[in-house]
Design brief:
With about 475 residues, this protein is mostly helical. Helix content is about 75%, strand content about 0%. The longest helix has 18 residues.
Length: about 475
Amino acid sequence: MSAPTTDRIARARSAAARESWAEAYGLLRAHDAHPSRAPTAGDLMILAEAAWWSGHVDESVAARLRAHAAYVAGGDHRGAGLAAWWLSYEYEGLGRPAAAAGWLHRAHHHLDDEPPCPEQCLPAWTDAEQATAGGDRAAALAATRRMTRLALRSGSPDLLALSRQAEASVLLAHGRRAEALALLDEAMRAVAAGELTGLFTGLLYDLVLTRCGEAAEFGRSVEWTNAAMEWCAPPWTGRPAGTGPVPSGENPFRGVCRAHRVQVLDLLGAWALAEAEARQACREVPVDRLDAAAAAYCAAGDVQRRQGRLEQAAVSYAHAHELGRIPQPGLALLRLAQGRAEAAVAGVELALACQSDPRHDLLGRARLLSARTEVALAVHDAPGAAGAAAELEVLAGDVPLLRAMADSARGAVALAEARPRPALRLLRRALAGWLELRVPYEAARVRTLLAAARRAVGDEATARRELAAARAVFERLGAVPV
């Protein structure tokens, strides 16, 4: 191998160690342009990561395939197992589950008979997620604790933070919320301290924000979405999802983190910014994370629906559906706003029936139940509304966001049943909850119900004040009054 070639490889490895991925990508691509100078398996793994950071997902997969073959040829089962797992992960992101399953099986083939090693952490993580999805929480917890043992043994901050996140996910599904949140806080302490590599920093932001969203941990979501966007700075102008590579040197996690931020901005009532950020997120997300674009489209559709821009909302929900996300309960509430009550009922009931494990996504279930209550009341189905509100009450526990949703739903049901005094008690508590959470739209909706309850007990003056306060919020948000 010539001196210039050796120097180029050394500089690429140095750039990768500094996480200067655009530089590493350029150097290794130039080196790889000469077939007679075959890169090592390790250099191919560096090329794969550099290509991914540079937005060239197909090249990343191709480089990992070559790395796997090189590791196999050299009898390196640990390296081959690691390459196989990353191929499984990338194929899953690209929407190729059969290929992903095959490469996961190959990773286990390489690693299961090896002595304990760091490479076994990643297949154990996938095993834990699959066990959780299948309802086998004992197996999931065993897999995450094996991850932790391997991570501690390896001394890798990346793997340790990932294992804590994985165990927290399983504990949340078990209902062991306090333990889970403590583990998430510890994982994010490592992120905030800058102890992790860029890849695992991005992964942890995405994973922990997803867990917090599903668990309705609104305070943590606000704090950590802001931190994630600071890490992803500076802002940039990208292209529509899937239309081409991310500009060299840009952060491919930016669109994913921005999609999480959109959902926070939506609740905080920053609707104009939320809609703009949703459009930006859809331009930024890489081709292997189109689920984030789908979530952003859903959030944009929710804003448009509540502002009475029903045709635009329908388009946003359609885009989300095209990307593989069922846009419920937003679509059911859109149908209700369009006067299509039967379609609204059918849509939300089907979505509830299709949710395999409600405990895995508490907020998602709560939103469906809240919408089911609203739709049932609109079609005068008192038993259906009461049943949905009752399930929401059980689900809520002492989680502030879920508690506000449950009190709102139960208050609306009590008011519809001509029980104004119980309605007043529930709705006052709901209003206090929404105000404490700083969620203005839901607070304004509760005020309209409070006004009706006040009128029912003869308190016209207070009813007028509640309506005036609600109207001011609706006007500020550009929302259609309810």
